[in-house]
Structures are given as C-alpha cells and as structure tokens.
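Example 9 (inverse folding). The structure is encoded as follows.
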C-alpha cells in the first residue's frame, strides 16, 4: 500500500489537510530567527509581497503576528502554506474565521478563510516557484466590507513550527 502524497489528504470528510512542503525542512529551523526580522519590513507599502498576519490563538486567546508572503486580487489575499494546514497560524485563522493583515502600509480585516490549491492569483514566476518548492496549499482570505480594526491587543511573534 502506498503512502499518501504530500499533496492534499483527507483524514475526515469535509476537512482537507495539506502536508508540509519539502522546503519547510529548510525554512522551519531558521523561521524563529527570520520571522522577527521579516516582521519589521513586512506590511509596509514599499514591500507589497509581504504582509503581517495577526491572528488570535485558538486555545490561549493571545494575539500573534506572523509574517507571510501574499498575492492579491481585488477582493482577496492569497497566502502560500509551506508548513501545511497543520501549522498553528492557519489553524488559528480557520478557527477564528478571519484575521487582521497589515499589508501595503494599512491594516485590513480579512474574513472567510479557505484552503485552495489554485495558484492563479500569483504571477507566473511565483507560481513556478511554489511548484518547485513543493508548496501545494494556499489560504485565501477575503477583504471584509467593514474595515474597523481593534489595535490595542498585545501581539506575540509566532515562529513557524
């Protein structure tokens, strides 16, 4: 019997699980060092390919900030999932039904998170990079119509697993 691929697998009906990409083995150990550095430049209007995703922990209730790469359309942001859907931040965002994203110098309330495999929102070169790096899962977050944002929460940096 063959093992499931690192593509999408299902443990329970209706729940799609995407395993870690092979590149996560390289980036995982350095994420604790890189994330605080990336968080300083992510989300600025000068670097639109990076954003800071703020999300609440599902068990602790604490707020976390995770730097992420993004692609965008008029109504959504798309975030690659190199650590798969079992990493803490995607699970937190899915459980909460959204997050706050600092992107292009502004904070945006994001809703209706979903895991997709369609990378068409990314430019061709980035789509190729996702494929070469083995990143199969992408989280789609839609811009909320109401943009009111709470900004008084204490934020904790979250390193990748």
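The amino acid assigned to each position is listed next.
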């Amino acid at each position: 019997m063959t093992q499931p691929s690192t593509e999408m697998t299902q443990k329970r009906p209706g729940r799609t699980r995407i395993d870690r990409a092979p590149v996560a083995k390289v980036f995982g150990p350095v994420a604790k060092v890189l994330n605080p550095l990336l968080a300083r430049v992510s989300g600025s209007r000068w670097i639109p390919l990076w954003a800071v995703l703020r999300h609440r922990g599902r068990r602790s209730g604490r707020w976390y900030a995770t730097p992420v790469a993004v692609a965008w359309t008029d109504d959504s942001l798309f975030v690659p999932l190199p650590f798969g859907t079992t990493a803490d931040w995607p699970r937190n965002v899915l459980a909460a039904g959204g997050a706050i994203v600092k992107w292009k110098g502004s904070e945006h309330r994001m809703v209706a998170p979903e895991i997709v495999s369609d990378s068409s929102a990314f430019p061709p070169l980035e789509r190729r990079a996702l494929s070469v790096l083995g990143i199969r899962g992408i989280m789609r977050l839609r811009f909320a119509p109401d943009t009111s944002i709470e900004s008084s929460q204490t934020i904790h940096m979250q390193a990748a697993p």
